[in-house]
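[09:14] KT: can someone run the structure on this one? pasting the chain below
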Amino acid sequence: MKAIAKSPASAPLAIVGISCIFPKAEDAAAYWRNIKEGVDAITEVPASHWDAADYFDADPAAPDRTYARRGGFLPAVDFDPLEWGVPPSALEAIDTAQLLALIVARRALDDAGYGGGEARRFDKSRASVILGVTGTLELVIPLGARLGHPLWRRALRAAGVDDRTADDVVRRISDSYVGWQEDSFPGLLGNVVAGRIANRLDLGGTNCVVDAACASSLSALHLAALELQSGRADLVISGGVDAFNDIFMYMCFSKTPALSKSGDARPFDRGGDGTILGEGLGMVVLKRLADAEQDGDRIYAVIRGLGTSSDGKGTAIYAPSAEGQRAALRRAYENAGISPATVELLEAHGTGTVVGDATEVRALAAEYRSARERGTWCALGSVKSQIGHTKAAAGVASLIKGALALYHKVLPPTIKVEQPIDAAAPGATPFYLNTSKRPWLARAAHPRRAAVSAFGFGGSNFHCVLEEHGAKKPAMDAGGDVQIAGFAAASAAELRAALGSMAEWRTWSEVRAGAHATRSAYRVGAPCRLFLVLARDGAAAPAEVAARAARLLDERGAAASWAAPEGIYFGAGRAAGKLAFVFPGQGSQYTGMLRDLACAFPAMQDALAAADTAFWESGEEGVEGARLSDAIYPHSVFGAEERERAESALRATEIAQPAIGAVSIGALRVLEGFGVSADAVCGHSFGELTAVCASGRLSEQTFHTLANFRGRLMGARRGDRGGMIAVSAPAALIADLLRAEELDLVIANKNAPDQVVLSGATPEIERALEIAAARGLRALRLPVAAAFHSEFVADAGRPFREALRKVRFAEERCAVFAN
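[09:31] RB: done, structure tokens below
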């Protein structure tokens, strides 16, 4: 690994606030949820923008027509002009970008803890606003169009139309456009996006915008970094703003031509045929890292370094240059003082164009391979697959994705990749295309790191290197479209009173925040407990659900527990009966086990990290840098053969047993976090060892050590390891069948009165499958690596017993039942 000396002039920066509005995402929480869950935010052009019937033509050469009619469009956002000191009469003359930017900027400051109300004070005279905005704004198009009236009038006269009719036609056309007024000039200027924010939020530092085409927001970030590192500002709002998705923008990209004919951006996919346009606004609040730490700020991620370059005399002003991109990368890593061999997430420019994607991968691979000669270690992706190319906001869309991935410790997916392009073929480069979310587990050698690229017409190249600030995953990530509100009180009357707070939950952002507050205050042991399940697309508003719950409390009382179909659950006193946990054995494993839990809960990730540590301490050998968790959550694959290889690797006994143990303990820890505990535990086969750990008799560390040892012992047999089948029939019938057919198999498990599992040599397993089929018995081959519960694994018994003799067993917290 190549060491890089850090430049003394590049003090790291902290991202302490995040705010955005992107397609299908009204705020940063919704944006992260969409990214993490792979939501496709590309839609048909809405009526609010332009009518595809007027402008669409499938022929790219058709004059004044576009062959695209899909894109990423902003959701409707409420804007109160009086709240911002904007006269309602002036609204029509102020570009949407300027108005929405006010909302996003204030939310970013609020998120950082420096907004209004009870927020912390800061020196506003040393707070700057530096944003990426391309040229003039959308408003310039209709205002400019009005000025064509002399051409319209001359054309009408030439067509023989009388002056009175011509005047009426000209007036009708003019009235279809926004009219000129006093506020029109500032309302159409890009720089006023930043100026209006500085004015309304009373920020006295630098306010300006920069234009580097589709790299504008990372260009703004670069200038913001210089402001902070030079000491000219102490806080900067930076990012990008692009609400320009009108027909003019579509025409620009159509005639290049760069838009996808199929209607989807597919970055790094062999079927990629161009990009899709999106719009959005994204802003981050930046401070010097040392200041942020001293001030106790919540830090999403650290900006370790930025690199910039120009293509110089490239092949064309709009063609990508691998050399120019490599220069930006080299400078970024020199500036950061780290090696690209330590970066595990790379959010690329990735527009979905054939030439652009291939050029970018080659440039990235060359720089990353120069740092480490072998291996595949970095997830490559592009959020443009989900929201389209948001142009001036493209870089900050990627930056926010990278920062939130580091903060939540999740490797997010890139969607619409069915078969990677040759330049990004699996195993050919340091990169793999991640197509599903995966927990991001840290390596001991370095913290989690991510990088972001953005490039713009004119040869502008930017690359940003990010690093996690806290190695610990934050509290449960509950930013989805379903929320649980939990109330606990001493009486039903107190519960009813607490429900009143839900009347203020009007927007989904308020629902998320309010539900989180109720869960934080929830008391497991309270006499009266109420859970309400709230869905974003639910038929009833939160206030209606609360009112319904209050009525049910009155009707049904609080003497006993009850549930209602509307997602309302009431509990009173202690739960009736006892609770037992059953832990699974080998054969239950599959790639991606409990992935949602691992991506949402810190306790689950802690359990996986502990299992990884024990796996390597146990002396396992394998691929350089491989971990147990890499087998549970492998790199994405793109074919049946590759999928079977991944499943086969996890089936290996020495991997499967510690892997099942890791996720089982992780799930147990999640339940314990909710106050759920067992009165008794048991396990199936390997799961018995997990049950002993769950009872408290084994420490977690000892459990992982034993799981690894057990797996190696039982997977040590060479030659035929045998197999297992489940047969749906009573045990007595199967015992008779084994004798009659002289099958050399044993009844390994009695799963149920009418199901048993047979275990033995592979040829006998094959013969048993044929006999079962001939007799009309349902038989299923189990995904196991050996004939467990048979003589095939008997040799493991003695050494495992010896290992157990050395273990100190603690007192049990609950009963353990053997099977």
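[09:33] KT: thanks! Confidence is low (pLDDT under 50) at residues 1-8.
[09:34] RB: yep, looked fine to me
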